[in-house]
Amino acid sequence: MVHQxxxxxxxxxxxxxxxxxxxxxFKLASQRGAVEAKLREICERYRLEVDPLAxxxxxxxxxxxxxxxxxxxxxxxxxLILDEPTAxxxxxxxxxxxxxxxxxxxxxxxxxxxxxxxxxIMEITDEVTVMRAGRVVGxxxxxxxxxxxxxxxxxxxxxxxxxxxxxxxxxxEVLKVSSLQLKDGNGxxxxxxxxxxxxxxxxxxxxxxxxxxxxxxxxxxSGMRLPTSGRVExxxxxxPYAGRANADGLPADFRGLGIGHVxxxxxxxxxxxxxxxxxxxxxxxxxxxxxxxxxxxxxxIAQRCAHLMQAFDVRPNNPDLRIGLLSGGNQQKVVIAxxxxxKPKLMLIGQPTRGVDIGTIESxxxxxxxxxxxxxxxxxxxxxxxxxxxxxxxxxxxxxxRITGILPVDEFDTTRIGLLMGGLHKS
Amino acid sequence: MKKTELPRxxxxxxxxxxxxxxxxxxxxxxxHLLGESPVDSLRILVDSAILDPEGLGYTLFYASTFIFxxxxxxxxxxxxxxxxxxxxxxxxxxxxxTLAVLSFDxxxxxxxxxxxxxxxxxxxxxxWSFIPGYLQAKRGSHVVVTTIMFNFIAASLMxxxxxxxxxxxxxxxxxxxxxxxxxxPLLNKVLPVFGDTPLNISLLLAIAALVIYGxxxxxxxxxxxxxxxxLNAHAAHxxxxxxSRTIIVTxxxxxxxxxxxxxxxxxxxxxxxxxNFPAGAGFVGIAIALMGRQHPVGxxxxxxxxxxxxxxxxxxxxxxxxxxxxxxVFIQGLIILFCGAMENFYAPVVMKVLNLTRRSTGxxxxxxx
Lengths: 427, 369
Description:
The structure holds 2 protein chains of 2 kinds.
Chain A: H1 14-19, H2 28-46, H3 61-74, E1 79-83, H4 91-106, E2 110-114, H5 118-124, E3 127-132, E4 135-141, H6 147-155, E5 173-183, E6 189-199, E7 203-207, H7 214-221, E8 229-234, E9 237-238, H8 250-257, E10 259-262, H9 266-270, H10 277-280, H11 298-311, H12 328-341, E11 346-350, H13 358-373, E12 377-382, H14 385-391, E13 394-399, E14 402-408, H15 414-421
Parallel strand pairs in A: 1-2, 7-12, 7-13, 10-11, 11-12
Antiparallel strand pairs in A: 3-4, 5-6, 5-8, 8-9, 13-14
Chain B: H1 8-33, H2 38-51, H3 53-78, H4 86-104, H5 110-139, H6 143-165, H7 202-219, H8 221-231, H9 233-238, H10 243-270, H11 281-291, H12 296-319, H13 327-341, H14 347-361
């Protein structure tokens, strides 16, 4: 198995990484020579360019991946499982990885490739099994299928369910994102050339396979993270990213400007599990509920909480319960209620109904559409195309940290969206 | 359905009491091995530390210092920081206090001098914890490592400082004796029952500090942000908390509280700055914070317990020649072991008992399920 995030000890050499777990008690030193010779032989045979004595953190990402493969071959693996192997590779590195995989195949070994990139599937595989939401949707021979068919299988057919909504009448421009870029610490590009606008009374939904930059985009727009470059205008004014060393405290400023944020990972970011429901209803707004002595105005907080819990039908209706004891759907209702109560002009929502029971999904959707009809600009990201279709006025499709297409919901077409999600540019 | 969590009364009272009893039983065993009667010893301990009014005075006198130390460790714990440098911060706080007193005790009256000395103690204690706080917040250097190193640095620094403060012709390694105006008002003036003990207004200040701590931590937005940071830094960032500033400010407050712990013994009892005056009180603060679960009432009760152990242990060693004076350190170590390191040792047992009684009485807990 080659994991998407490598399982290597960075400050050890390639040789030591390969031997790790196979050291053979106290004979470490005597074995090293033999193992090294064998590694060189494997490298030769599979044309893996890796120096066994190099330290792992000095190697490029592509070379680190070759070390992972080397490790598996050394342990005479016959089945190689690769999880999104090309996610971190450049085009050339991808090409050379595929060379190696072909060689592997010739040697009679089996390769299982986990990927969402249609291009790669068509290029290298013999058989495809498509999975969606934890289920196998189908298995086909690669040469008998097409990218379009795979795309359809990948996204599924959304059920036609119409929730009541006012006619689409977008108002003034609320958000304008121009050439936004984000690179991580290693210089790997997470977001590039992001350009789009969002108007009042409009829902724009970002579709895409999870991990293609949607989370990072919402984090930047909510102030949790600074972009590497580019600008974002909110109600005609630049959001204050410039001249900051870190995003410490920035989310509070953004909230003050009128940006609400329902984070996609509720338990990591959205709530404090050990706080009560009531305490969580002021989370992020803790400086707005003080009395004149600077202490919490518990009477006001309790009233506010009771009101929110009733309006959003949070169950059980007990404000003193620790929020960690509520179901996912009820936790999400608390978070959404809290952000809606602040009357934002822009609402950012990551995965509005992840981990939410079916009964609650519709009530959350209805609430969000009501918010839109009241003139709030909503930007949401969702991996559920059904949800995208049910809520969006316009759809942005992202792949590999780029926008691969923007289309109005009337032109919703699963095949086309699937192709865009699979990284195939507007064609 | 089985409950996976213990109710608050169990974690707050049952577990600490079980842990404490375990520590006492082991201590009793050792006393038995030393050839003395554990029951007899316990009686002497309780008599001299709690039942005798003068002994109680001493117990509360020690507890006053411990409350400040316990608060210092507790407030840092609320933010997820383990400040084990309260000892050094208290020691350096004593220097701040002494410098203030030595500068002003000739000119200022007591009611101005004492607050000035307390401010000096708080500022010096805070400064001593600032560097570890800054390093943790901005550089990621773990506060446990830095604060313990700062204890050693404080010890050396104080050796140097006290050397400079020794008046000419004095043999004792200590500063000169403070003027009478710097002496804290004793409580036996109002409550003569305490007899000739150094118990002073520090106890009242400590209780006030406990109340302020409780209000700030649970009723202010600053305390809310502090606890959010301690429980989940990701979420705190989402909520707009400035994490690094919260860490630094918390460490400043923690150090200031530890510094204030110097006031009781230096200005209430010795009246001069002496070598190694905290005598481990800062470390006792860790045990108090753990055992008292960072709750004001818990901190108060555990501080009194540790005060009683010092007072009672001292008398015990006088009456029972086989029991050395270090018994206190030994019992303290056992309490730290049981209440700190093995804090949740009995949790599975208590949970089992609870589940059993629930099933037999048939009460349902579906509310929280």
